[in-house]
């Protein structure tokens, strides 16, 4: 890192101040878990192995359609973003990968970018294409769609961009492309619903054909916004149908905020797993729609239930099951680094809670139609405070017992504020 970074000394002294309390809490929890037949050491090792990708667009302050209030010391460019991602991983030890977005993250030398990231211990997860906004000097506008546009020239431009993303991703060591399109319509009658989907499938088939052998393409559905009458890839049914038609490398990506209110997302996850089509996640939380709130901040029980399905699938060795975990959040009122630290921890929490579900007990209750007994098996896991396991996992992996407190004590943001003079008009984009 060229500028300020959080020193090993500070990390050690912050950890030392919390070590004896952690040891006590960890020992007490280990005893309680042991009474339930759970080995806390195995659990800690599983948590240490858990990782989620940081979206490069997430380290800048987000915004709503009304305004964006940039914070001090925001990343000005990709290399600043890498510094922030490295800091998040240094403290959390839970975010070893980045999910870049193009053309937002365009740079002249991707081999160099990969090297800088590797120097921070970071690698690249899925690359995201962007055909939902126009770029300067672009030949054709996406105002009326991209991959499903009525004009073949617009579709060709959008297809070429996605293929460019694959080319960049190969240089970065990525192995997947995530495609989210904003295509849809705002008026009944504006678009032929069948033909629009046909055009999307044809375009996606061309992108699919350009995938390297070991790559996957993730299709991200979203109910509405920015199209408010119909969206071309609106739901998991559409996404699954498209993934099945395209072939084995195509899988579905579940962004938690992209569903109708109260939809049973964990069941959607279970269905996609059933067909070997769960590609990955954009984790965030939601109260009303695509709110992009911090993961686990609104409905932690739902997050746990999603992980409960994932662990269930992992334990029974479900076919084609290797979901990519990524965050996709908009940090409008917090320091994005703090939000991302906490979100990674919340995902680990849900993961650990799902791991300690007594699956044999659950199966017995389910087989006996003991509805409440089965529910209580889940609740027993969900209400267990696994925080000491998470903190111990971080400590053993070289991270911080208390990531946010340590981050605040370091004055990282203050240092970056002087190192990174504000750039006029910088936008983190809307997620
Ligand atoms: C849009 O709502 C989606 O969540 C996409 O994943 C999008 O590409 C990403 O959020 C960046 O804007
Ligand atoms: Zn998303
Ligand atoms: Zn979102
Ligand atoms: Zn979204």
Please give a structural write-up.
With 431 residues, the protein is α/β, with parallel strands linked by helices. It has a domain at 52-345: Divalent-metal-dependent TIM barrel enzymes (TIM Barrel). Helix content is 47%, strand content 9%. It contains 15 helices and eleven strands. Strands 4-5-7-9-10-11 form a six-stranded parallel sheet. Helix 8 links the parallel strand 9 and strand 10 (278-283). The structure holds D-allose (AOS) and zinc ion (3 copies).
CATH superfamily of the domain at 52-345: Divalent-metal-dependent TIM barrel enzymes
C-alpha-based Rg, rounded: 22 Å
In CATH, the architecture of the domain at 52-345 is Alpha-Beta Barrel
**How many β strands by DSSP?**
11
Which sequence of SSEs, written as H and E, runs from N to C? HHEHEHEEHEEHEEHEHEHEHHHHHH
Overall shape: it is globular
Strand content: 5-15%
Characterize the biggest β-sheet.
Answer: 6 strands, parallel
- For the largest sheet, list the strands in their spatial order: 4-5-7-9-10-11
Span between termini: 28 Å
Question: Which CATH class of the domain at 52-345 is shown?
Answer: Alpha Beta
> Roughly what percent helix?
40-55%
Instruction: Give the ligands present.
Output: D-allose, zinc ion
- The number of helices is 15
Summarize the structure.
This protein has a domain at 52-345: TIM Barrel, CATH 3.20.20.150.
Index terms:
isomerase, binds D-allose, binds zinc ion, L-rhamnose catabolism isomerase, three-stranded parallel sheet, 15 helices, L-rhamnose_isomerase, TIM Barrel, alpha/beta
